[in-house]
Structures are given as structure tokens and as C-alpha cells.
Amino acid sequence: MTAPTIRRAVSSDAPALLSLYAALAGERRSAQPGGLDGSQRLLEEILADPSRHLLVADVGGQTAGTADMLIVKNLTHDGMAWAIVENVVVAEQYRRRGIARSLFDHLIDIARTRGCYKLELLSAKHRAGAHAFYASIGLAAVSEGFKIYFDD
């Protein structure tokens, strides 16, 4: 397989991103992405935000995966920012080919370059395979995560 090209998302990535996010949401209706028109406008806002790093992985001209990172300014840790990663998804036909590892290599590099003291993410407890992957790239399960959803 050709090595993935990791790059920042662009406006024309909207249809591919929506397809990946629909797969990530699965049967959870509330997690499904919105329609293309509204999502296109929202994507433009995301792309204009210097704190956001929405990456895509291309393989042979196809969007194989994506991950989104937000860098948060912070008053603790001597003013060092922190990063949170969300919406990590690799298309099923590209899984186990190093796509997610390449995305995380780039995200970790960005977070370090931007002076973050940590990078974190939450992952549903039932996703054992994802947890093994995260551990394999150096992320440690050091905290218990808590959420409240307002859309269910």
C-alpha cells in the first residue's frame, strides 16, 4: 500500500469527511453529521480557527481517515497549552495499514511544536482494539473520563 499523505483538511474535503463521520457514528442517530450545506459552512469556520488541526489521510487520492485536534490555551502548567483529539476515524478498507498511526504522528508533532504539555483523548470503554492501538503509540490510560451528552 502507498504510504498515506497527511495534510490539513480543505473545504473540498467536506463530502469525504461527512462519509467518515457517518461511519464513525454508526447506528447512533444523534452522532450523525449534518447535511452538506450546513456542514460546509461549519467546516469553513473550523478551517479558519488557528487552534484547530483537522487532518486527513490521503491514499492514492482517496480520503482514508481523519482526526481533529483542538489546542486549548491554559492558565496552569506555567501557561502551557494542552491538546484534545476527537473524531478519529479510518475508513474500514484502510484499517490496519498505518493510517491512524500516521495521523497521530502528525498530531503529536503539532502539539509538541505548539508547546502543549499534554495531548489527550476520550475513547468509549468498549473500544478495546482502539485502546490497544492508543497504548501502542505511547498514550497511557491514566484518567477516568466523564461526559454528559445534551443531544440524546
Structure description:
This protein is about 30% helix and about 25% strand. By secondary structure, the chain is an alpha+beta fold. The chain has a single domain (about 5-135), classed as Gcn5-related N-acetyltransferase (GNAT) (Aminopeptidase). Strands 1-2-3-4-5 form a 5-stranded mixed sheet, sandwiched between helices. The protein is globular, with a radius of gyration of 16 Å. The termini are far apart.
Number of helical segments with 4 or more residues: 4
Task: Please report the total strand number as a whole number.
Answer: 5
What is the rounded distance between the termini? 40 Å
What is the residue-averaged pLDDT?
94
Largest sheet: 5 strands, mixed
Rg over CA atoms = 16 Å
Structural class determined from secondary elements: alpha+beta
| General shape | globular
CATH fold annotation: Aminopeptidase
Architecture, CATH level 2? 3-Layer(aba) Sandwich
Strand order within the widest sheet? 1-2-3-4-5
Give a topology summary.
Elements: E1 5-8, H1 14-25, H2 36-48, E2 52-59, E3 62-72, E4 82-90, H3 99-113, E5 119-121, H4 128-136
Parallel strand pairs: 4-5
Antiparallel strand pairs: 1-2, 2-3, 3-4
List the main descriptive attributes of the protein structure presented here.
152 residues, Aminopeptidase, 4 helices, 32% helix
